[in-house]
Sequence to fold (302 residues):
Amino acid sequence: MRKIAFGYSTRCNIRCSHCVAAGDIPDNKKMELGKAKQIIREMAVAGVAGISFTAGEPFIFFDDLLELVALCRELNIYTRVVTNSYWAKKPEKAEQQLGLLKECGLSQLRLSYSRWHQQHVPSGNILNVVRGCRKKDIDYFVSFVTDFSEEDDAYEQFLRDNKLKFFPEPVIYAGRADSFDRESIFTDYQENCCAMNPYLAPDLNMYACCDAGSHFTTTNFFLLGNLKNHTIEQLFIKSETNSLYNCIRSMGISTIASFSGVSAREIVTYRKCELCKRLFDSPELLVKLQEAGGSDLQTWVR
Ligand code: SF4
Ligand code: SF4
Fold:
């Protein structure tokens, strides 16, 4: 099933210091509404069955969001909206906006929550949204972004105390978080496979990875192309047939790192996206991996 993260706009009302989606320079790109609708129609033809509205804060353009969600329902596309919940200061307001989204056919809401988000948005807003979702029968979950430090215990406890459905997500050290100090880690030897759903940015660039990969600007390894020059179908096919992308999906980053000469002792000290950056954002290593991706790497299986 084809799914995509849809960046209608990179504008956000707050400035989280860990934001993977933004660098130091404010980035306020936005698609034209008509263009976004045309692209969604083309996505439906290309067999896209799920769209996650993300990037900046989608509720800033709430009326546009309603139209886009309604169009997705008409085209039988599952929709998720990722939000920081800034708009839910009052329970009544939250309920009203959720009611409108429900009428337009929203499938699921993902609430971003962390000690960085909550410097700007009161935790009570999250409760207002969850209560509204329960009343309006909207599926939701909380994405609890954490660096696993003790500082985050109180934030996790808040979610538990309020019986919210949540999933911890590790901070990705890219974008603004790239400058964060980080603890050394020593992981289990994980495969580190990625599903790799593509990401469409407001400037119509499409990337094979919707997380840190769009920031690998030395090689632009994950950049598939721009919709001004390619069709959605062409860019999906590129994502699905690239042998190295498929190795990331099937064998995982750790096996590729081991194949390319990184020692096992070193691999377990890397976070997944950082190991990915070491492999694929280095022009020399990338050339070698691209040569191997066609044959040698693909036979490097148990
Ligand atoms: S992490 Fe999300 S809410 Fe925070 S600045 Fe980035 S886009 Fe906005
Ligand atoms: S490991 Fe690579 S492909 Fe997977 S999410 Fe991170 S940057 Fe993207």
Remarks:
- The CA atoms of residues 224 and 238 lie 7 Å apart.
